[in-house]
Task: structure prediction
Amino acid sequence: MLSGLMADLLVVVHLAFIGFVVFGGLLVLRWSRVVWLHVPAVAWGVYVELPGSVCPLTPLEQALRARAGDATYSEGFIQHYVQPLVYPENWSVEMGYVLGLTVLVINMVVYGAVLWHRRRHGCWPFQTRMR
Result:
């Protein structure tokens, strides 16, 4: 029972991490120090979209589910949980590349806006300039 709950909690953490990877750059607009967590998270998020890469949270979830006697799955986390909700049935390697590139572009746009604001105003967005 505890293993099943831990696996479910891990799914929530995994989804939260994916949300942070995709949208965490927006937190940098408010709290500039988040950049030190977000940039490595984006790098990891892009890396695990490459063919042959596996996020270590997926095998850990699988092990917890097996220990709890629950059914496991053979595909990756995104393919199992996210793809059925968002992506078409015929997922391909190319779509994984597109997803990774999309995450990268979203964050490049956000960070471009942050840097533009910093250069123009001399401070991070939503912060007052020191005088």
